[in-house]
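Good morning,

Attaching, inline, the backbone tokens for the sequence recovery test we're adding to the shared suite. The designed sequence is right after.
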């Protein structure tokens, strides 16, 4: 019966969508402008106020874009705001990808078909708790580049990227029959130390040259004069951002300081907040979100709900804050739609508020997608990472006297193995150290094939080692995500300064760039050597594990979404059928389960789970397994002495 109901529901939805498409995808040119007399936007001559929500297409599988946008539309929103992460589309200079999950044009088309206008935030910097705030790591090829400034090399790269992107966006402008009503330039530039007006002037000219004179260009900054000082500039309409519980009058007074007339706009109204590994999961009550939303709508303001759905930092895409604290894989954000697109109490609370001001579309809301608990999957050990080096290091090792960074090794994400030898006998425990705190961000250390400890940026800069002169020392260094906010976004990865042993600087490094994702998706990892000695109790060598499960075709409507849980595993990376789901770290928390979207699962072949466990798998004392459950856990008690001191909603505190 339930399934029938869902089927009927989706047929109605399909019908609704067809109707919507008929009404909206005509592509007749329109007009969209600022009205400084009436303090509002004007769309095709009519007064227009948007209630928008943020969805980052880069955090949601393409097959779910329509579902999420439709849920947004049915809540009564009339606009969607999205960032374009530069590094998601240009992984090497001049190499672009706009297909599949990266097909931003398709996302824009869907928004338009559903009846949402679009507020586009193409950067070049986006912040967004996204690796390096969306800037490509290869910009760091120039060691002393000043990002987000008039630095000539930075500007050259920006000009080329925008020369590719903005002409693609131009047909989607409202004036040209598309959905894009406004375009943001840069992002919260007033929070950045550089305060380079020439840079902002350059971007303004660049955007105008590609998009024309008509489109409304705007900036967004914290709702305080100190932010607006360097963030707002003539020719770009200044908007502000602030969260629930703020004094709405005072916040918009700040915007009025920069824009005495024109529409009031909160470009980021925080429906929840971000998380960090090792600090409690952020939760914001629906009541306070509804209260402040109501206050803003009552004064006629335009609002964007950040986030409407947060989604997932798949793969290696999470960012980090400074002092170094990486964000977890889930970007649930305690948003009105969960990471998996589920309807929440907050969704309906927001709908209730909007109802008081605007007509809500009639018809069914797409239901929460069902989840399925596939159960327990046995895992067996494959090779250790160092045994698999030949498979993983396609380009072969690089040798140098002192360690090189990821970027020098031409690798952006993931893991690099640094290898050297003990120069002297260390019969007693001898400190192996990164005196300048240059392990970015975590190193799994072994001596002669025995795991001996972990170094961690800002937390553990020294461990003791013992061994004979000539013993092999391996440091597998993990890039846990680049800082995305503040003055240290030029976040080099790997060993970014020298390692010492006692008083000596270690030299003679051999470094292996690792193409782990390719090896996993091509199934190249072999089984473990049966002669492996049993690992010591506390720590074992980073190694791969594999398991598979079959989805029964006797059950209708599978595959469905699910969550993977790794009980008793410590920290690592997990792939399903070659798709990199992201990092797991249940021993640090608060995230315990990872979202597994149905589209990566198969009913035609066994589903392959690959795990790279960095610390210790629970397999040494017997069989080990992972588990697929129907319930997410994002709020476990955190196991860390690391306190991320912050008040909610105040980005100042992240500086
Ligand atoms: C482009 O991105 C899509 C979506 O992530 C991916 O499937 C595809 O393999 C990428 N193409 C290239 C050439 O890397
Ligand atoms: C909010 O800010 C306004 C303008 O600064 C001020 O007059 C008012 O007293 C504030 N309200 C509260 C509750 O603090
Ligand atoms: C290293 O060993 C020395 C001598 O045993 C000890 O004093 C020191 O605390 C140890 N350091 C670490 C980081 O374990
Ligand atoms: C390591 O030390 C040497 C000698 O002092 C220095 O030239 C080099 O720049 C250092 N390398 C790094 C990565 O800090
Ligand atoms: C899982 O791996 C096996 C071979 O190891 C392969 O035959 C199968 O197609 C893979 N499953 C999927 C869904 O790719
Ligand atoms: C986690 O969230 C669930 C569901 O909201 C709640 O029942 C549980 O008490 C929370 N656990 C912790 C440790 O906060």
């Amino acid at each position: 019966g339930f399934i029938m109901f869902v089927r009927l529901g989706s047929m109605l939805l399909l019908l609704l969508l067809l109707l919507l498409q008929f009404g909206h995808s005509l592509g007749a040119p329109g007009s969209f402008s600022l009205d400084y007399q009436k303090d509002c936007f004007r769309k095709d001559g009519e007064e227009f106020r948007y209630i928008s929500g943020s969805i980052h297409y880069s955090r949601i599988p393409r097959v779910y874009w329509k579902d999420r946008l439709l849920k947004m539309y049915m809540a009564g929103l009339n606009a969607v705001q999205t960032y374009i992460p530069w590094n998601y589309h240009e992984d090497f200079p001049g190499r672009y990808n706009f297909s599949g999950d990266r097909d931003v044009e398709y996302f824009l088309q869907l928004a338009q078909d559903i009846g949402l206008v679009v507020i586009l935030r193409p950067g070049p910097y986006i912040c967004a708790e996204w690796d390096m705030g969306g800037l490509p790591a290869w910009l760091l090829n120039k060691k002393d580049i000043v990002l987000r400034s008039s630095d000539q090399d930075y500007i050259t790269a920006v000009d080329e990227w925008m020369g590719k992107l903005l002409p693609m966006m131009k047909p989607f402008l409202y004036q040209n029959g598309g959905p894009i009503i406004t375009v943001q330039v840069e992002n919260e530039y007033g929070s950045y130390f550089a305060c380079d007006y020439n840079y902002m002037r350059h971007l303004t000219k660049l955007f105008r040259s590609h998009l024309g004179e008509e489109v409304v260009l705007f900036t967004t900054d914290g709702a305080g004069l100190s932010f607006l000082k360097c963030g707002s500039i003539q020719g770009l309409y200044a908007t502000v951002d602030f969260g629930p519980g703020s004094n709405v009058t005072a916040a918009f007074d700040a915007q009025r300081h920069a824009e005495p007339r024109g529409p009031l706009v909160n470009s980021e109204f925080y429906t929840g907040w971000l998380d960090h590994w090792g600090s409690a999961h952020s939760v914001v009550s629906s009541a306070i979100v509804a209260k402040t939303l109501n206050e803003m709508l009552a004064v006629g303001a335009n609002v964007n709900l950040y986030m409407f759905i947060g989604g997932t930092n798949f793969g290696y895409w999470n960012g980090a804050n400074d002092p170094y604290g990486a964000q977890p894989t889930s970007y649930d954000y305690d948003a009105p739609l969960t990471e998996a697109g589920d309807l929440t109490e907050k969704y309906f609370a927001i709908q209730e508020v909007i109802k008081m001001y605007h007509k809500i579309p009639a018809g069914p809301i797409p239901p929460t997608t069902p989840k399925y608990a596939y159960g327990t999957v046995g895992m067996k050990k494959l090779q250790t990472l160092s045994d698999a080096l030949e498979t993983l290091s396609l380009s072969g090792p690089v040798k140098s006297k002192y360690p090189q960074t990821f970027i020098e090794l031409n690798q952006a994400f993931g893991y690099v193995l640094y290898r050297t030898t003990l120069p002297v006998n260390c019969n007693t425990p001898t400190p192996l150290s990164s005196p300048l705190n240059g392990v970015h961000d975590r190193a799994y250390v072994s001596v002669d094939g025995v795991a001996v400890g972990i170094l961690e940026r800002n937390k553990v800069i020294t461990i003791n080692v013992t061994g004979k002169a000539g013993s092999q020392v391996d440091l597998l260094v993990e890039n846990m995500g680049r800082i995305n906010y503040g003055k240290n976004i030029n976040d080099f990865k790997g060993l970014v300064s020298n390692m010492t042993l006692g008083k000596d600087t270690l030299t003679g490094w051999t470094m292996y760039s690792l193409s782990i994702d390719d090896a996993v998706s091509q199934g190249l990892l072999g089984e473990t050597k049966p002669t492996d000695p049993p690992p010591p109790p506390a720590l074992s060598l980073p190694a791969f594990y594999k398991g598979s499960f079959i989805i029964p075709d006797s059950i209708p409507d599978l595959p469905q979404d699910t969550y993977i849980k790794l009980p008793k595993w410590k920290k690592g990376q997990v792939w399903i059928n070659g798709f990199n789901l992201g990092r797991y770290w249940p021993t640090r928390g608060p995230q315990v389960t990872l979202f597994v979207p149905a589209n990566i699962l198969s009913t035609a072949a066994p589903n392959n789970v690959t795990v790279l466990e960095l610390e210790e798998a629970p397999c040494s004392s017997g069989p080990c397994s992972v588990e697929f459950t129907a319930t997410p856990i994002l709020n476990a008690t955190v196991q860390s002495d690391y306190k991320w001191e912050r008040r909610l909603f105040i980005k100042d505190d992240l500086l």
